Amino acid sequence: MKLRNALATVAYTFAVSLTTGTVLAAEHPAVAALTATAVVHADRAGAKIHPYIYGQFAEHLGRGIYEGVWVGEHSAIPNVRGLRTDVVTALRELHVPIVRWPGGCFADEYHWRDGIGPRAKRPVTLNTNWGGVPDPNEFGTHEFLDFSQMIGADAYINGNLGTGSAREMAEWLQYMTSDKPTSLTAERARNGHPKPWKIAYFAVGNEAWGCGGHMTPERYADLFRQNANFLKAPAGARPIIVASGGNDDDTSWTQALISKAHEDMGAISFHYYTIPGDDWKAKGPAIGFAEDQWISTLAHTLRMEEFIAQNVAMLDRYDPQKKVSFAVDEWGTWYDPEPGREEQFLYQQNTLRDALVAALNMNIFQHHADRVHLANIAQMVNVLQAMILTKGPQLVLTPTYHAFRMFKPFQNATLLATELNVPRYTLGEVSVPAVSMSAARTVTGALVLSMVNLDPKIARPISISISGAGMRHVSGEVLSASAMDARNTFEDPQAVHPVPLVGAVLSAGNLSLTLPAKSVVVVNLE
């Protein structure tokens, strides 16, 4: 994908139906002033925003599982049943709705029986995808599901299509969900869990176009139908079955699956990673970048809107009843490896730029709430765009963590129709809308607005007319910093954090405020 070619998209046709939460970018010179204007139609409700779009992803990769989540019961790091107490506490505060595990590419070489039974007797296997390091299999099915329950999240299991079998996947699902007295459920009980677990989603393979087998869409569609046919669970307990879909601007996977394999399919997955440049071999650094990489990163991440719209159009053609959802179960930023670290561990620093990327994507997912019901940022701890970074017993919450925490009121909220007219932020040949926005009515009846000022230098006044609601009180939070690559470190863990919103004025159905440069702002109206 070339950035210059992407500019035609980012230049901007962010146009969806108003009933689903439109964002319209102003294209007329008269609107290219400093102030942005918006209308929120509080009396025009759209789709429910599913909480799963704020989901997380935990793969056996680098220090994401071992050290990041699992330290073992005998570790000096405080833990409960081997799971880090500080990480569990931080994630509970985030209200993580769902976690995807064990991969990723790792899933298609993972055999679930290696990760059950007494940990001392589990085999040590080789993680050939990520660094060629041994995996002790101490963190397996029981540990993952224990972890999910501890943080209050539902479970999304990725099955092994690449090196596994239909029987292996079917028995894994039966092991986890069956309530009948079989050898598998007896084994589960001996391993410490007599009762079945709830599994929300189960995927048949991962990235079948790449690390999951280098298949064609047609071959995968046939294999999906064969394998999904044997994924059985008690009545009412069968998870939503996810088919491995495409990535970037390739819609051939969505078309093949929705036209040929939709009977057992509840969702089609999609993967898109944001990089600053156009070359995966030289993506760009996580810190110390100039403004050209700031705007190129934001321009690239805004392509998520185009990719979702293309795939949703394909789904609407074959599935107008919207029975099959679109699952963006891998997304986030991906930079060059941090100098001095293991290249295949994908550890990268997390900055204010990443917080804006997260907020922009969550706004896009919310705009498509009628079809996007699941999304999983990559990844949760110590890998790529992480919520949390750890170093031994230390923990730091990243700017992305704070962005996710600010978006908590959107979980289970109802999307509201929105019109937004904004100036543009331009640098050289790259131009993006200066402001992104989404609005919803929360489960408590309040209104919540999320706004992003993409411009790193200019504060943007915004005037918002709110029709159909008699709100009288305004509050909110602002996430910003002086530097584009501002970050939290183990030496200064509070360098970037939300602060209370000040200066907002709500009067006679009109809200006026100023969005600081390079900021994420969430406003609550009651």
Provide the gyration radius in Å.
Answer: 23 Å
- CATH homologous superfamily assignment of the largest domain: Glycosidases
Structure annotation, total helices = 11
Instruction: Give the mean pLDDT.
Output: 93
Total number of domains: 2
Q: Tell me about the biggest sheet?
A: 10 strands, mixed
What is the CATH topology assignment of the largest domain?
A: TIM Barrel
Shape: globular
Unreliable stretches covering 5 or more consecutive residues: 1-32
CATH class of the largest domain: Alpha Beta
Write down how many β-strands occur, each being a DSSP E stretch of 2 or more residues. 26
Strands in their spatial order, largest beta sheet: 23-22-26-20-19-16-1-21-25-24
Q: What are the salient characteristics of this protein?
A:
single chain, 526 residues, Immunoglobulin-like, alpha/beta, eight-stranded parallel barrel, ten-stranded mixed beta sheet, 26 strands, TIM Barrel
Description:
The protein is of the alpha/beta class and 526 residues long. It folds into two domains: 3-48 and 415-525, Immunoglobulin-like, CATH 2.60.40; 65-411, TIM Barrel (Alpha-Beta Barrel). Helix content is 23%, strand content 26%. It has eleven helices and 26 strands. It has helices at residues 3-10, 85-94, 141-151, 166-177, 183-190, 217-228, 252-260, 291-301, 303-318, 352-367, 399-406; strands at 36-48, 55-57, 79-80, 83-84, 98-101, 125-127, 133-135, 154-159, 201-204, 240-243, 267-274, 325-333, 372-378, 388-391, 394-397, 414-421, 424-427, 430-433, 435-441, 447-453, 460-467, 474-479, 499-500, 505-507, 510-515, 519-525. The strands form six sheets. The chain has a ten-stranded mixed β-sheet, covered by helices on one side. Strand 9, helix 6 (217-228) and strand 10 (240-243) form a beta-alpha-beta unit. The radius of gyration is 23 Å and the shape is globular. Residues 1-32 have low confidence and may be disordered.
